Amino acid sequence: MKALVKAKAEPGLWLMDVPEPEAGPGEVLIKVLRTGICGTDLHIREYDGWARQAVRTPLVLGHEFVGEVVEVAPDVAAAGTVAPGDLVSGEGHLVCGTCRNCRAGRRHLCRSTVGLGVVRDGAFAEYVSLPASNVWVHKTKLDLDVAAIFDPFGNAVHTALSFPLVNEDVLITGAGPIGIMAAAVARHAGARNVVITDVSPYRLELAEKVGVSLALDVRGSKTAIEDGQRRLGMREGFDVGLEMSGRPEALRGMLANMTHGGSIAMLGLPSEEFSIDFARLVTSMITLKGIYGREMFETWYAMSVLLEGGLDLSPVITGRYSYRDFDTAFDDAAGGRCGKVILDWTA
């Protein structure tokens, strides 16, 4: 089969013929239809410092996907949870099942998580195998492009729904695809004001399409968020913050504009350590919560229900390419003037 492979310990990706995977005990074999390009994939293609530490070649990339089940192991067939013909996406964090958190039902906190497309061969291929326990069956009709990005959509939902949002004022720092999806979720979930910040006019325009109250360009401005509060008639700061950028200045600006007793969910992953105003954090009694991945599988239920309830993610998807044009697709995804970029494995 064809697959996108990190074949060498150097920058680049290679479209290669590799053996088709098999459905081992407890697993299913899935024919891949669409995949989404993630920032992780860009890091692996570039082979930066993180990728050099995390990835062992050769490796098939990809963890955002939708596909059709073509084979299930006998024990999976007996359980009746997944069947050939099902349209599925996959939870890309494979957990051990035996640690304290896994046994307590907190699988998203497993200390021994293995990443699909990072440690285990992934979904940038014509077929992928996955444990049945990691498969999410789509019960209702769904656009394939949207189904392909359930993984990052889950990050957005997990972050946005970490704290109550109804009638609250929400600040989102970072208008990348996940930040924009989180803004759509916050608006759909009943937030009063949803303000998003970024330094990319293109991505701020995308954010406006999902109905944010304000999309603020913070380039060269130390008061953009304060000015935004005044424009909205806010008096006491933001109730909920969703930090999606991983930038020190973004978190510092968020802390400076939170109300007393506010809550911050932090998904953005910093590239290095940085300082914050802990006196502000303490004296304003602000809650800071780290977010990684999705809650298994509560977040997946929430995603499906949000889409069934009319949440529209189509503005976030800005490009689709045949897998054969992967270089162009990756260049698009890395260029910054895009939302989510999709690879079509049927074209």
Automatic annotation (TrEMBL):
Chemical reaction(s) catalysed: L-threonine + NAD(+) = (2S)-2-amino-3-oxobutanoate + NADH + H(+); 2-deoxy-scyllo-inosamine + NAD(+) = 3-amino-2,3-dideoxy-scyllo-inosose + NADH + H(+); 2-deoxy-scyllo-inosamine + NADP(+) = 3-amino-2,3-dideoxy-scyllo-inosose + NADPH + H(+)
Gene3D superfamilies: Medium-chain alcohol dehydrogenases, catalytic domain (3.90.180.10), NAD(P)-binding Rossmann-like Domain (3.40.50.720)
NCBIfam families per the UniProt record, alphabetical: PRK05396.1
Cofactor section: Zn(2+)
Residue sites binding NAD(+) per the record: 178, 198, 203, 267-269, 291-292
Alcohol dehydrogenase-like N-terminal domain location: 24-136
Protein's job: Catalyzes the oxidation of 2-deoxy-scyllo-inosamine (DOIA) with NAD(+) or NADP(+), forming 3-amino-2,3-dideoxy-scyllo-inosose (amino-DOI).
Positions annotated as active site in the UniProt record: 40, 43
Membrane-crossing segments per the record: none
Binding site residues for Zn(2+) 2: 96, 99, 102, 110
EC number: 1.1.1.103
Domain of life: Bacteria
Main location: cytoplasm
Keywords: Cytoplasm, Metal-binding, NAD, Oxidoreductase, Zinc
Subcellular localization: Cytoplasm
Subunit structure: Homotetramer.
Protein name according to UniProt: L-threonine 3-dehydrogenase
Pathway: Metabolic intermediate biosynthesis; 2-deoxystreptamine biosynthesis; 2-deoxystreptamine from D-glucose 6-phosphate: step 3/4; Amino-acid degradation; L-threonine degradation via oxydo-reductase pathway; glycine from L-threonine: step 1/2
Family (UniProt): Belongs to the zinc-containing alcohol dehydrogenase family. DOIA dehydrogenase subfamily.
Site (Important for catalytic activity for the proton relay mechanism but does not participate directly in the coordination of zinc atom): 151
Binding, Zn(2+) 1: 38, 63-64
Residue stretches making up the Alcohol dehydrogenase-like C-terminal domain: 177-305
Cofactor note: Binds 2 Zn(2+) ions per subunit.
